[in-house]
């Protein structure tokens, strides 16, 4: 395939046309799972050139269920479009935060990061996770003792970061700060141009130069912008998408609409993913209580129903052949201010869980309304059958 992008006069492209060209460029080499991926990536690549002007830089997570799904291509192509790229593989946490402190904000493009978090060699896991969590905000620093006198030095760790790895390998504290693309293997009839670094670098160079120049003219403006959000995009999702929507608004043309469509899609997709075992437990409990159309269930019945759910982890949660038990259930739900207690059913007292609030606890409906998306369970009525 012969590139036509090199024939474009990139120096005179409008912001909208430049983002269009970048979207077309990345789509030459990567088959994406849906239409919102390439425009989002164009905006993410663009935001790295203005990262110093934003309060937040969204993490980019590229995952897949299986190898060979094109994950690494996203950063292999992206390294020639982002600002100050640093391809990272198996680097120590101190080395990474010193790279950022000395040169940042830089664009960290981290491949096979799932091996760092889940493998036996992940000794720096907690420090790395803390750095990646904190470093998405401009005010983030890591304190370290340095020199013979052990004086405390604060290292800035704010930088754009793209993390590539197999699904399930990223901590939830990172994914909740990220826009996540779940890549899939190409079908046999899906064709993309083969990645050749020399060709990608050559064709990307004028695009990156034009992108850097254009972003330089709008960086302060987009840094101060407060773009309108699509309905339902609030709190952390708003923080994550604000830089990208600000750039889209500055570009004009179809980009304000295109960016908000992508925002709505990715935020909705993130809401559908149980991000922690606790949220998965709440989700499955909601399924069980809904199927039985009840506001109370005995603990023994709940455990039986949870273990019987298709593709649920509860049958081996305590190890192979060791299912969820009453103690583990109570421990997990205590984090959400939900506790077991006695209640009357069919004229007898039994111990279990209820959906409604009582004088001793908030009930499952309160947890569902807070942690499950689009759940409007009413938790306002106190259950009178709870034995205080």
Sequence-ordered SSE layout with sheet pairings:
Elements: H1 15-29, H2 37-47, E1 59-64, H3 71-78, E2 85-88, H4 93-103, E3 107-110, H5 113-118, H6 125-134, E4 141-146, E5 151-156, E6 161-166, H7 172-175, E7 178-183, H8 197-224, H9 235-251, H10 255-271, H11 277-292, E8 296-298, H12 299-308, H13 326-334, E9 341-345, E10 348-354, H14 364-371
Parallel strand pairs: 1-6, 1-7, 2-3, 3-6
Antiparallel strand pairs: 4-5, 8-10, 9-10
Summarize the structure.
The protein is α/β, with parallel strands linked by helices. Helix content is 44%, strand content 14%. The longest helix is centred in the middle third of the chain and has 28 residues, at 197-224.
Describe the structure.
By secondary structure, the protein is of the alpha/beta class. It has two domains: 5-271, 3-Layer(aba) Sandwich (Rossmann fold); 277-371, no CATH class. 44% of the residues lie in helices and 14% in strands. It has 14 helices and ten strands. It has helices at 15-29, 37-47, 71-78, 93-103, 113-118, 125-134, 172-175, 197-224, 235-251, 255-271, 277-292, 299-308, 326-334, 364-371; strands spanning 59-64, 85-88, 107-110, 141-146, 151-156, 161-166, 178-183, 296-298, 341-345, 348-354. A five-stranded parallel sheet has the order 2-3-6-1-7. Helix 1 (15-29) crosses helix 2 (37-47) and helix 2 (37-47) packs across helix 9. It is globular. The termini are far apart.
């Amino acid at each position: 395939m012969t590139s036509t992008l090199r024939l474009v006069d990139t120096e005179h492209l409008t912001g909208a046309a430049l983002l269009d060209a970048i979207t077309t460029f990345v789509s030459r080499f990567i088959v994406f799972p849906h239409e919102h991926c390439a425009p989002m990536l164009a905006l993410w690549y663009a935001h790295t050139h203005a990262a110093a002007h934003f309060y937040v830089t969204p993490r980019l997570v590229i995952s897949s269920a299986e190898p060979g799904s094109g994950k690494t291509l996203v950063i292999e192509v992206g390294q020639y479009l982002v600002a100050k790229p640093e391809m990272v593989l198996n680097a120590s946490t101190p080395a990474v935060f010193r790279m950022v402190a000395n040169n940042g904000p830089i664009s960290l493009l981290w491949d096979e990061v799932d091996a760092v978090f889940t493998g036996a060699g992940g000794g720096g896991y907690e420090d790395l996770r803390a750095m990646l969590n904190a470093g998405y905000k401009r005010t983030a620093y890591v304190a370290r003792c340095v020199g013979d006198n052990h004086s405390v030095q604060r290292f800035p760790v704010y930088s754009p970061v793209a993390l590539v790895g197999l699904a399930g390998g990223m901590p939830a504290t990172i994914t909740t700060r990220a826009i996540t693309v779940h890549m899939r293997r190409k079908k046999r009839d899906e064709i993309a141009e083969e990645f050749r670094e020399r060709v990608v670098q050559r064709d990307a160079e004028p695009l990156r130069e034009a992108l850097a120049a254009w972003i330089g003219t709008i960086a302060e403006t987009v840094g101060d912008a407060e773009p309108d959000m699509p309905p339902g995009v609030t709190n952390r999702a708003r923080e994550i998408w604000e830089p990208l929507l600000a750039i889209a608004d500055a570009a004009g043309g179809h980009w304000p609409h295109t960016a908000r469509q992508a925002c709505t899609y990715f935020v909705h997709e993130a809401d559908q993913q149980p991000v922690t075992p606790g949220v998965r437990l709440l989700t499955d409990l909601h399924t069980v209580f809904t199927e039985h159309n009840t506001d109370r269930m005995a603990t023994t019945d709940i455990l039986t129903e949870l273990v019987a759910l298709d593709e649920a982890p509860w049958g081996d949660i305590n190890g192979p052949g060791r299912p969820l038990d009453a103690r583990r259930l109570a421990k997990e739900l205590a984090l959400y201010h939900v506790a077991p207690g006695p209640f009357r059913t069919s004229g007898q007292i039994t111990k279990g869980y209820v959906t409604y609030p009582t004088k001793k606890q908030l009930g499952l409906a309160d947890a569902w309304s807070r942690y499950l998306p689009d759940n409007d369970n009413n938790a306002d009525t106190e259950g009178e059958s709870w034995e205080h």
